[in-house]
Amino acid sequence: MSSTSAPARSAGRAVPPTGSKRGPSDAGGRGSDTTGGRGSDTTGGRGPARKGWRGVIEEYRDLLPVTADTPVITLREGATPLLPAPRVSARAHCDVYLKLEGVNPTGSFKDRGMTVAISRALQDGAKAVICASTGNTSASAAAYAARAGLGCAVLVPRGKIALGKLAQALVHGARLLQVDGNFDDCLELAKKLAADFPVALVNSVNPYRLQGQKTAAFEIVDNLGDAPDIHCLPVGNAGNISAYWLGYNEYFRAGESAGRPRMFGFQASGAAPIVRGAPVQVPRTIATAIRIGNPASWRLAEAARDESGGLIDSVTDRQILAAYRLLAREEAVFAELASAASVAGLLQACENGQVRVGSRVVCTITGNGLKEPDWAVSGAPTPPVIPVGASATTAAATALGLA
Ligand code: F0G
Q: Residue 122: phi, psi to the nearest 5?
């Protein structure tokens, strides 16, 4: 990987795909670009620099805790779409965008943090990494560890993670333990193992994770030309809301944005310790990704809320499911249930009069709905079966309401 010194910030970075601020014309390539150099894709008329995107470490190297010696382990994460959401906008009476983090290589925002955590673990001499997870962190850790040639151990709550996420950890060769408890029990155990044995912990208590995840805020500002008024996201272990706030602040101080958003975080009502002000012993929600009763970044999330003039509130499983269906049917975005909490929360905040009409709002869609297709299938009517034969056309036409 490239080990050249940090470029001037606005000179070396490819513009995220929906870029407007820097524009394709000032995304000129660096001679040492490991992709073989950006050519006409960054300067031609056919849109910005997706082809030249080198992953979040190379694109934001000067703002991340890496050195020239860091072995960069990347799957070219980042540069995710910032999709205008006209139907959600109409309901919210706002200008709403969806940051589609499910487009990342392993299907969730975790890849942004994992590229930094795994690269640094390798640099620091680790031979193996460990994490606790509700599924996405383990999928991402397993993939980046495989790429780095590191061992990977993951602890997940038994029977409480989506099948797709389990499949990802297994297919990438992680050692997987199902713990008879919840995520909070898994994290406690992972911390103990990392303290007693030579394995690096890559949960978001590892500061490199939040450092990588903050790049999503940079991309949003690069795309919009400024920070949004409000940023909504689901809250589980509370790392991501903390990371975004870090990113918005850094860009603001660097003069890249004129303002900072109010941070709106949403927990599931059966797993809402921050809203309640006390840990939840037995967290319950259909959104397994955020089924967490004692978030590790609790204080950081409260700081993000308070410093930004934002809020952390809860939404019911029913609201989450309604937003999940709205996203799929009207915006064509297949989100995870947990991800839909950001949109459910926004709509609730609008109803509560907590959002000024006409605000520019970004909702992070944290993960890809394909990881947990069960709700999509179980919530739909069973498709009719058409027998093959002479009557097939009539039967199909009738079933489709055409006849
Ligand atoms: N959305 C999804 C899809 C997630 O997987 C998570 C967290 C969150 C939202 C909440 O983010 O924890 O930073 O507040 N998943 C973790 C995991 C806990 O293990 O994959 P957070």
A: -65, -45
